[in-house]
């Protein structure tokens, strides 16, 4: 039996950011991942956007950790040679009647501490994104993009450099609470952990049940992508978003250049039952034509290609529009720290989440 201070369940960007921080505070750490490689689910199935923080209600963890995490992430990318670009973002209004919604986003962003936000006119848009149709926009110079897979690899190396152990192919089969530890059984070994961080993403609800933690539900919400054909990628220089949809699910099908040169279109948002179904009943390419043309009128069906998909681990059902991150000591099992429901802006906030979880670990013996 292996004994460890902190076991982290899940080697996505959240779990690895926690390992990166906790191991540097002197704890013995192991990261258990059910897949053969880290970051194979939500962490790398997204737009790769570094968000500024104007979408989330003030005072929520999503707002606070997004703003804090953005600065940490830019600095981490710079010092660890990870591909990123502070390319800026336009949230556009197609007509004058929508400008009030831009003003509301501006006020929310400023309340959250987002710097540099301004409402810009058609002339500004034409200079920056001449192919985009809009009468006005909210410009966010602090928004950017990052290569998520490069970030995952770097966080794993950083955690291992601080003596954290990575255990791929190690799903939890069972867990038992004793007076001194949680005994975690995998197909290969049993680990006695004084504390456990539940960063299991789409499976955080199932892991919490196994650990004797509180009951909650993760709702899988699939987002699908198209992309611009290579000969149309030059139409876009930075990130271009519509106003958030009235449904409240997601922040709209947007245009997102990648660090590799692609331009993603998406994601859509559709709740589903399965947590591992990325491909069945995919939306046809025609679905993306109208939302793309709202932003880029010159685009036709022939300019689009189907791309990948991702699944968000939401903490709220489809009839609700918002749930905050769950980052706290478990209410039923004090040895468990929950880091659940980490959807957008989780990639942006990962290093701030790691700090918050490490602080919770520090408090355990006080």
Question: Describe it for me?
Answer:
The chain has helices at 13-23, 61-79, 99-111, 122-128, 148-161, 204-210, 289-295, 346-363, and strands at residues 2-9, 29-32, 49-50, 84-85, 89-93, 118-121, 136-140, 144-146, 165-167, 174-177, 182-185, 190-198, 219-228, 239-241, 254-257, 263-266, 270-271, 304-314, 326-329, 336-340. It folds into 2 domains: 2-45 and 149-218 and 322-363, FAD/NAD(P)-binding domain, CATH 3.50.50; 85-142 and 220-314, 2-Layer Sandwich (D-Amino Acid Oxidase, Chain A, domain 2). Helices cover 26% and strands 26% of the residues. The strands form 4 sheets. Strands 1, 2, 9, 10, 11, 12, 19 and 20 form an 8-stranded mixed sheet that branches. The chain starts with a strand and ends with a helix. With 366 residues, the chain is an alpha+beta fold. It is elongated and about 65 Å long.
